[in-house]
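ASSEMBLY PREDICTION REQUEST
Request ID: AP-0331
Submitted by: J.K., bench scientist
Number of chains: two
Total residues: 225
Priority: normal
Notes: Please return the full assembly, not individual chains.
Input sequences:
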Amino acid sequence: DAKTTQPPSMDCAEGRAANLPCNHSTISGNEYVYWYRQIHSQGPQYIIHGLKNNETNEMASLIITEDRKSSTLILPHATLRDTAVYYCIVRVSYNQGGKLIFGQGTELSVKP
Amino acid sequence: DAGVTQSPTHLIKTRGQQVTLRCSPKSGHDTVSWYQQALGQGPQFIFQYYEEEERQRGNFPDRFSGHQFPNYSSELNVNALLLGDSALYLCASSSDRLYYEQYFGPGTRLTVT
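STATUS: Completed
Returned structure:
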């Protein structure tokens, strides 16, 4: 079973920041938080991951709370092409093969 | 770099038949994972191959089997197809050294009638 909880859907205006929340209250100390997204009819695309520090790359920022029980993915200036299902994943450790356990995700609709 | 490629893109099979799906990993990757995605659901992990061995397996019956070749490409075989096997089958590749990032292919859409 997925170890994360996400809202099923969210809307965002084009050009505004999209903030996607995720709860992972049972996360273990050595488990990472990953975010992937899946645009319709395509394979999932890696966005970002983190352990406990905030992370930023060219696609997004990841904010993890100090207790690590929740996180927020931030798309700073959402475009129509960011419309997709966003998955927050707590990844099992490497010695367990590092498989990804997907939940239902959040369907983000970016509107003009 | 072609990225992860999968073939075929679509196929239709009849219940009880067998099917083989193929995956070529991204250049430089040595690990291949397979996922099943039913309509409206998130992908579900089937198994992972590394060094031509099944390293980890999800909660799927023995009808699902796989293989990894010396060039790191992989096959997923499903025997005795059921209607419930209709799904998008995704292949993801990664480097065992940089295991944290998995690259997904576009998937194979399997329809069982």
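REVIEWER COMMENTS: Chain B touches chain A at residues 4, 33, 35, 41-45, 48, 55-56, 58, 90, 92, 94, 99-107 (CB under 8 Å).
SIGN-OFF: pending second reviewer
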